[in-house]
């Protein structure tokens, strides 16, 4: 587990990378990392590609503020729920890419199933392109507490492994350390882009199940 300063440095670096990838337009997205005292999370309304130490808050695992003067991310409860649900989760990166936003909109099901891609094997737990990667999709909701409850309920019967999609909104990627969450994020975004391209060619009806 990281101390606060290390966790914040890693998230600042991740923010520059995610911004450069164009997965967090404007002030979209938020990042967090588990720490000895709870977790650190980005402040609300910031450009996450230009974060400094002042743009972070420290909270305990009940959501009680420990340090930081700025307003916490509007989506703090989702991060908190993921840490409460998944003991191994050390980092959460939330992005708003075009591919994640559009794919989650056009997929009518409550999950996005992907198969046949060699890059699936870059996700922890996958050994073959023939396996099916299933990413849950939750309807977007401005009531983040309610959305978090839906995610929690879902996790009880289908554990969240790499991340979840929020419809028309974006991706929450999770990992056991900063390197793993960055890998999960990059692989998922790559697969979403591939799938979107495939659907543009074959027709979106293929995904309306
Ligand atoms: C303009 S982005 C809308 C809010 C959002 O979805 C997001 O990821 C950023 O919210 P935050 O409060 O963490 O800045
Ligand atoms: Zn968001």
TrEMBL record:
Its EC number is 4.2.1.109. Pathway: Amino-acid biosynthesis; L-methionine biosynthesis via salvage pathway; L-methionine from S-methyl-5-thio-alpha-D-ribose 1-phosphate: step 2/6. GO terms for molecular function: methylthioribulose 1-phosphate dehydratase activity; zinc ion binding. One of its GO terms (biological process) is monosaccharide metabolic process. InterPro entries: Aldolase_II/adducin_N, Aldolase_II/adducin_N_sf, MethylthioRu-1-P_deHdtase_MtnB. Residues 9-196 form the Class II aldolase/adducin N-terminal domain. Binds 1 zinc ion per subunit. GO terms for cellular component: cytoplasm. Zn(2+) binds at residues 94, 96. This is Methylthioribulose-1-phosphate dehydratase. The gene is mtnB.
């Amino acid at each position: 587990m990281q101390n606060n300063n290390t966790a914040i440095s890693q998230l600042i670096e991740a923010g520059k990378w995610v911004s450069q990838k164009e997965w967090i337009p404007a002030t979209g997205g938020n990042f967090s990392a588990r720490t000895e005292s709870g977790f650190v999370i980005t402040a609300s309304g910031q450009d996450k590609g230009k974060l400094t130490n002042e743009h972070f808050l420290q909270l305990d695992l009940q959501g009680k503020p420990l340090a930081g003067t700025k307003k916490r991310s509007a989506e703090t409860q989702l991060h908190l729920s993921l840490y409460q649900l998944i003991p191994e989760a050390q980092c959460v990166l939330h992005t708003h890419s075009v591919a994640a936003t559009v794919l989650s909109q056009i997929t009518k099901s409550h999950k996005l199933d992907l198969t046949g891609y060699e890059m699936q094997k870059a996700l922890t737990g996958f050994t073959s392109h023939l396996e099916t990667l299933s990413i849950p999709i939750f309807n977007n909701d401005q009531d983040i507490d309610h959305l978090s409850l839906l995610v929690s309920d879902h996790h009880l019967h289908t554990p969240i492994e790499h991340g979840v999609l929020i419809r028309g909104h974006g991706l929450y990627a999770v990992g056991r350390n900063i390197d793993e969450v960055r890998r999960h994020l990059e692989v998922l975004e790559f697969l979403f882009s591939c799938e979107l391209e495939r659907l543009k060619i074959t027709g979106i009806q293929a995904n309306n199940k």
